[in-house]
Amino acid sequence: MENMTYWNEEEQQERETRQEAEQPQTEKPVQKSAKKKKSNAAVLAQRIGLCVLSLLVSVLIFAFSGMAIICYGPSEAARDLFVVSVMETSAAKFLAHLYFSEEEVEAILADNAVQETQEVTDEALVEMPQEDAQDFDLNGLEIVDVKGSTFKGKMMIVNDPSRVYVAAPPSFGADVAGMRVAEMVERDGAIAGVNAGGFADEGGMGLGGQPLGIVIQGGELVYGSRSASSSVIGFDAENRLIVGQMTGEQALERGLRDAVSFGPVLVVNGEPAEVNGTGGGLNPRTAIGQRKDGAVLILVIDGRQAHSIGATYNDLVDVMLQFGAINAANLDGGSSSLMIYENEIITTCASLYGPRKVPTAILVK
Fold first, then answer.
1. Predicted structure pTM score
2. How many whole angstroms separate alpha carbon 178 and alpha carbon 209?
3. What DSSP designation does 81 have?
């Protein structure tokens, strides 16, 4: 029995020795297989990367070739529309300069613009609504779909102009961030709102806190110069929409209670603005007007979307006249354009990053 035990133990030791000697031989194929899998994955990733890169290069070549055809092709109208459209943006102006010199771009812009008018709103032409007027609901607010050959949008009709006012963040400045329209609507408990005046936005990277021109709230100039002239859009103490070129001092002398600066003026005293060429590019737009009966017209056009490329200033003039505007002006547009009603965005914002922060908004209380 002792010999049997001895040989069993010896046999067991030999078996363990053989297993230890054989172990590296079984691990080597596994390691080799793992390395092979890693190598295959790397090759696959490289091939996918090359395919994506090739696709991007092809898209860029196609895009730049297409733009070159537009710019140098037989249609001057298409060329002008392209140049004016990109020059109205904050971030894509460089595209026009890829194909044209500064002088050529300026010439195209001059040939396709709304002519500035020195005429200012005649208050006597606007008849304020009366509370006891028959067939006129002073509290009425209506939203109507609008569309044209290249655009779709919303027109908000507010019968009582006293409900419309300018809202703004607590402070302004180059290093100060603005507020989103939705934030101002919620803060004030307003029923509706749109973006309003322009702001410093170099390269599309502005913080939205530095307005262009003036800002008047509650009859006080809260931002801007009293002596510099700009295209002013605002309401006076009698709730009449006043549009036209004026200084901050002149705006205060006219009794404007709420105002911003932008433009151009689209309709003044019932007369449409004179428009050259394409009358602006195809872009998202925001505009405001007033009918003779005092009702306020607030328009937002979607743009840079599959369902709506955008509108020109000519389009805005036509829409405002169709809705009976006696005075109207263009507000800031592009990626800032949007309309909010009952705390919901009811238009399509063109910004890739969602609604932008802005220095002013037109709200409806």
1. 0.81
2. 4
3. H
